[in-house]
Amino acid sequence: MFDPEVRAIEPDLIHWRRHLHQHPEVSFEETQTTLWLEQRLREMGIDAIDRPTKTGLVAHIFGTKPGKPAVVAFRADIDALPMQEENDLPYASANDGAMHACGHDGHAAMLLALARMLHEHRESFCGEARLIFQHAEELPPGGAIELVRAGALEGAEAVLGLHLSSGFETGMFALKEGVLTSNVDRFTVTVTGRGGHCAFPEQCADPLLAASEIVTALQTIVSRRIPANEPAVVSVCEFHAGTAYNIIPNEAVLNASVRSFGAQTRQLIEREARTICESVAAAHGCTARLDWYDGYPSVVNDAKLTAEAERVIAERFGAAQTQTIGVIMPGEDFSYMLAGRPGFFVELGTRNAEKQTDAPHHNPRYRLDEDALVYGVQYQYDFARALLDGTRRFWEDQA
User: Fold this and answer.
1) Percent of the chain with pLDDT over 70
2) 3-state DSSP call for residue 236?
3) Other Cβ atoms within 10 Å of 43 Cβ, number
4) What would the pLDDT profile of 297-317 be if each residue is shown by its tens digit?
5) Homologous superfamily of 4-181+297-387 in CATH?
6) What is the pLDDT at residue 280?
């Protein structure tokens, strides 16, 4: 099932992943992570390395196989989340308040393994494999758009991404053609009232009460304004108000996340949210200001690359190792890398209840089934050689 060379790299692959897990750094602060990755790449003999952004890293590996060269980029995100790990592991996070709870340590380790495989077998492909270790996927505006603006994707004819997922069984590849991930937007609501002593509420305009009703009312956008067959989510995830138990505050602040598909739904949610916030606040004698922030757009998978990925996986692991999925709500700034070029993004399962690797992402007890890593390396290695075989480009119309 696996090439011997891929199995041979597995011990290093797991070692790299555990090092990254033990030394997490949050978005835009991945200084030591990037330095460590560069050191590993140079130890492999890879010298064509760029640092287009402060904590982003790009490695260029050039094949020697004759034929029609192409440039294909492979991307892995490297940042951790600002949260405290609760796992009892020998390689648990050593950095307080930071944890790899979304699989990015595995992504980076797999791309390192791919780098070694491609560098040691340069005769097996034609053109350039560009390996992008991307910072700050978790924090908008994100690292992808910075790398794009810095020219890291210039000349790339296709770009590929992979995400480990506890939503699927270990080794299962979840694929979808077309729109895969949601638009990711957010908004802040500032409710301003008139504070005072809690014993005399009639003298106040309570922004906390108004904001509480706003939280409830915002849920009607999805349930009553959007068709039932149109996926959308509005989640208020932060509520800040007050300084003492006996003081009605002057202000309450809400922060919310929005997930949607399609421009019309995106615009409708913003419009309805403004109406609800302003109207509910006014009913309580308060005012509300909504500040909207556009986030990551949807990832859209190219049809030809999706079909080729499915073929590559089925040929290696069997058709039963793939499953077609619907749209998924998490966002991905990988979408910025798709501007002007086709791409493909796949979910790779890591769920194994017996190993306790079934906790959701962004959870302090999230764990990664390391058996999934070799699947990701083999898939990317096979896909790289298929797309860089020197004969044709799957993302172009064929004659």
Assistant:
1) 98
2) strand
3) 9
4) 999 999 999 999 999 999 999
5) Zn peptidases (3.40.630.10)
6) 98
Q: Which of 271, 239, 269 lies closest to 253, judged by CA?
A: 239
Q: Which CATH class is domain 183-293?
A: alpha beta
Question: For 391, what's the count of Cα atoms within 13 Å in the CB-facing half-sphere?
Answer: 4
Q: DSSP secondary-structure letter at 38?
A: H
Residues 6+ apart with CB under 8 A from 31: 25, 54, 55
Specify whether the CB–CB gap between 369 and 355 falls below 8 A. yes
Max distance between CA atoms of the chain, in angstroms, equals: 83
Retrieve residue 23's tokens: 């030394």
- The tokens for 349 are 């399962």
- β pairing state of 173-175 and 322-324: parallel
Four-CA torsion 54, 106, 83, 24, nearest 10 degrees: -50
Tokens of 232: 């959308």
Helix, strand, coil percentages for the chain (3-state, nearest 5):
35, 25, 40
Instruction: Supply 133's token pair.
Output: 């270790």
Map residue 316 onto helix, strand or coil: helix
Structure tokens, 60: 């260029």
Rounded Cα distance between 60 and 45, Å, is 12
What pLDDT, on a 0 to 100 scale, did the predictor assign at position 209? 98
Do the Cβ atoms of 174 and 325 come closer than 8 Å? yes
For residues 186 and 293, what is the distance between their CA atoms, to the nearest angstrom? 5
Q: What is the band of 392 on the pLDDT scale with cuts at 50, 70, 90?
A: confident
- Spell out the residues 6+ positions from residue 365 whose beta carbon is closer than 8 angstroms to its own: 86, 87, 359
11, 18, 22, 70, 356 from 91: Cα distances, Å: 15, 6, 5, 39, 16
Domain boundaries along the sequence of the chain: 4-181+297-387, 183-293
- Residues 86-106 have pLDDT tens digits of 999 999 999 999 999 999 999
Concatenated DSSP letters for 320-347?
A: GGEEE---BSS--GGGGGGTTS-EEEEE
Q: Scanning the structure block, which residue is given the tokens 């590993």?
A: 40
Confidence label for 397 from pLDDT (cuts 50, 70 and 90) = low
Neighbours of 294 (CB within 10 A): 14
What is d(CA 255, CA 186) in angstroms, rounded to the nearest whole number?
7
Whether the model pTM is above 0.90: yes
- How confident is the model at residue 399, as a pLDDT? 40
